[in-house]
């Protein structure tokens, strides 16, 4: 357990070394738990944002669907990244990358306190919370690029290019079925 806590701390203080070690050790179960817990925070926050927009959806449904989609997303995105990393001669394994990506999500635990602070401080706090959240999401993206770089022994440029290819593929994989469905029901 001490090693897990050390990885959490190290992801924040020395991310490249921490994510390299996580990729080498492959604690896939812990990585999956980290990913799901941080996703849960995002799901809970999105519910409060949806209520502010006047959208009413059962919290239970949001949690169930959100958790299932989150679980599927880490497996799918890891697979796409692993596949596209081969274009750039990536050398790591699927579970190495899966573990590193899971731990790269750890800073998302700071989103709920920032969101709560924004609510407490009102309008100006909300703006601060939004700016901080955007910065945190950018940081998490950078950590994901580092996770790919460290687990597959790629350059930073190749890691960014791999991410862009995977995101384009993901949009296509999601957009085509949705578009076909919308055309079918119209």
Can you lay out the helices and strands and say which pair or pack?
Blueprint: H1 2-13, H2 15-25, H3 28-52, H4 59-85, H5 94-104, H6 111-152, H7 156-185
Helix pairs in contact: 1-2, 2-5, 2-6, 3-4, 3-5, 4-5, 4-7, 5-6, 6-7
Task: For this entry, give a set of tags.
186 residues; mainly alpha; 85% helix; 0% strand
- β content, as a range? under 5%
How many DSSP-defined strands?
0
**Could you describe the largest sheet, including whether it forms a barrel?**
none
Helix tally?
7
Question: Number of folding domains?
Answer: 1
Structural class label: mainly alpha
State mean pLDDT (0 to 100 scale): 89
Spatial extent as radius of gyration: 18 Å
- Percent range for helical residues? over 70%
In angstroms, what separates the terminal alpha carbons?
54 Å
- Unreliable sequence segments: none
The helix-strand sequence is HHHHHHH
**What global shape is seen?**
globular
Task: Describe this entry's structure for a reader.
This protein has 186 residues and is mainly alpha-helical. It has one domain. The chain has 7 helices and no strands. Helix 2 crosses helix 5 (94-104), helix 5 runs antiparallel to helix 6 and helix 6 (111-152) crosses helix 7 (156-185). The longest helix has 42 residues, at 111-152. The model has no long low-confidence stretch (mean pLDDT 89).
Short description:
Helix content is 85%, strand content 0%.
């Amino acid at each position: 357990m001490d090693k897990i806590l050390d990885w959490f701390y190290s992801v924040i203080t020395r991310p490249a070394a921490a994510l390299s070690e996580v990729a080498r050790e492959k604690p896939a179960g812990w990585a999956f738990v980290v990913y799901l817990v941080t996703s849960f925070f995002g799901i809970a926050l999105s519910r409060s944002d949806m209520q502010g927009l006047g959208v009413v959806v059962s919290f239970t449904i949001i949690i169930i669907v959100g958790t299932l989609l989150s679980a599927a997303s880490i497996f799918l995105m890891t697979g796409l990244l692993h596949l596209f990393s081969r274009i750039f001669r990536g050398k790591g394994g699927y579970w190495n990358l899966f573990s590193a990506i899971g731990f790269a999500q750890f800073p998302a635990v700071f989103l709920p306190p920032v969101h709560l602070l924004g609510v407490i401080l009102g309008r100006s706090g909300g703006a601060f919370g939004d700016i901080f959240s955007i910065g945190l999401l950018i940081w998490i993206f950078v950590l994901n690029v580092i996770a790919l770089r460290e687990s597959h022994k790629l350059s930073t440029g190749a890691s960014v290019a791999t991410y862009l290819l995977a995101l384009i593929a993901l949009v296509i994989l999601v957009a085509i079925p949705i578009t076909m469905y919308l055309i079918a029901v119209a």
